[in-house]
Amino acid sequence: MESKTAKKPKKNTSSSSKTKSTKKVTPKKEAPKKTNNKPPKEAKTSLKEEKIVEEVELVEEQEEDEKTSVIGIIVLVLMICLAGLLLFLRCSKQEETHMVTLDANDGTDIVEREIIDKGKVFKPADPVREGYEFMGWYVVGEDEKFDFDREITSDMKIEARWKAIEKEGLKGISLDEEITLVVDGTSKLEVKLDPRDFEDVSLVWSSSDEDIVSVDEDGNLTAHKKGKAKITVKTKDGKYEASCEVTVSDEAVKVKGITLEKDDITISINQELYLDYEIKPSNATNKEVTWSVEDKNIVSVDKDGKITGKAPGRTIVKVMTKDGKYIASVIVRVRGGNVTDISLSGDDEVKVGETITLKATIKPSNADKTLTWTSSNPKVATVDKNGKVKGVKAGDVTITVKASNGKEATHKVKVVDNYVLTLTEIKTELLTFQYSVKVTKNGKTLSSDEYDQFFYNNEWYGSANLTVPSDQVTTKASGTKIKLNDGKMYSMTVKVVKAK
């Protein structure tokens, strides 16, 4: 029993030893902590996780960047599209136009004009229609006259409206008072109607003695023998009549001259006017005349002396007798159409006593160039018929030019005092030269007490300086000015006078 017992402890020792040995590797047998509790494996796992996390974060960052880039591109594209749309809309708005038709209703041709949105129609010259008076331009369907300052926002048709001119009735007829014919001679009497352009009148002719002189239905005379007879012409209704005393003799009465009623006349484009003349002596046998004009582009003239204005300008119309070739002439001026716009240009300052010329520009170019010039204050500045403005005294003035149809333009002019520095050469006994000093204001000499100093050729001179050395004198000095006692400065004109 003891031996069994003794073996047991040994067995126990062996077991104990095995147990100790097993304890050393016991952690390996702990399944739940097999992976997480061992330090080496935990370190490896942490590194892998960190790497995975880093890679995930990197991927996420890349995805975020890509999303941002895509969004940015989309926004940029949208902005470009929006800008393009706005530009398109703006351009479309700028290019929007409207068609405006001006119909003169048998006065002149129809005109079509393309006007930008909210633009204005340029007013044309007034049309002309024979037998009618122009009343104005009207939008079709409207009763008020069209305002050419009106903004155009749609297509429209503008028409000219007319009022028929009632023809004047016949007021009278006339003949030359006397005429002389030779036996077997012929002539034609011309009836003058009042008004001259009256038409469709029937006339009846008669002679007081057909044996001396006869007349046909057109007023043609034939002399048969010496003597006197009265030729009478009447309107068919008997309301008006006129007569001419015809003398038939052996000798013709020669023409001694011819005159026109006027020597200078002005008419408008398309206006008609008859020129009246007188042959001397009044009983001359041959009263035939011929008409001519220097420039047919400006005026036309027919065989009866009726002239018609064709274009703006000036020309001469002549009438010549067949007997003796005597000539009379008249200056004919043709006004243009109505002025639609007028403007003034030129200097806006002039010195007292000096002049500037303003230029008037009118539209259209063939419009009536008759202009009237006025000054708002002639005591400050005057203006002549050619736009020449002369300063009278310091101040401000407005110059106005007005066209014949009332269109006008203005130009403001400032008149300033005219200071002049006159340097007169003087000789000395030493044959050296100096120049005496004289300062004037508007033609009046200033004393040294009336100004402080003057600046000339880059040098200041006091008012007490009565001479300037010759080496300082030049006619090309610029910037010359005078300083008054109150400190104000004005520019000066320089005059250099050589010694005689």
Helix/strand-derived class?
Answer: alpha+beta
In percent, how helical is the residue content? 10-25%
What oligomerization state is this entry in?
Answer: single chain
Mean pLDDT comes to 82
Distance between the termini: 178 Å
Q: Number of DSSP strands?
A: 39
Q: Bin the strand percentage.
A: 35-45%
Low-confidence stretches: 1-38
Number of helices: 3
Shape type: flat
SSE blueprint and pairings:
Elements: H1 2-24, H2 26-29, H3 39-94, E1 97-103, E2 111-116, E3 132-139, E4 156-164, E5 172-174, E6 178-182, E7 186-188, E8 192-194, E9 203-207, E10 213-215, E11 220-223, E12 227-235, E13 241-249, E14 257-260, E15 264-268, E16 272-274, E17 277-280, E18 289-293, E19 299-301, E20 306-309, E21 313-321, E22 327-335, E23 341-345, E24 349-351, E25 355-357, E26 359-363, E27 371-375, E28 381-383, E29 388-391, E30 395-403, E31 408-416, E32 419-427, E33 433-441, E34 444-445, E35 453-456, E36 459-462, E37 467-469, E38 481-483, E39 489-497
Parallel strand pairs: 1-4, 6-13, 15-22, 24-31, 32-39
Antiparallel strand pairs: 1-2, 3-4, 5-8, 7-11, 9-12, 10-11, 12-13, 14-17, 16-20, 18-21, 19-20, 21-22, 23-26, 25-29, 27-30, 28-29, 30-31, 32-33, 33-34, 33-37, 35-36, 35-38, 38-39
Molecular structure report:
The protein starts with a helix and ends with a strand. The radius of gyration is 55 Å and the shape is flat. Strands 32, 33, 34, 35, 36, 37, 38 and 39 form an eight-stranded mixed sheet that branches. Strands 2-1-4-3 form a four-stranded mixed sheet, with no helix packed on it. It has a four-stranded mixed sheet with strand order 6-13-12-9, with no helix packed on it. Mean pLDDT is 82; it is low at 1-38. It contains three helices and 39 strands. It is of the alpha+beta class. The longest helix is centred in the N-terminal third of the chain and has 56 residues, at 39-94.
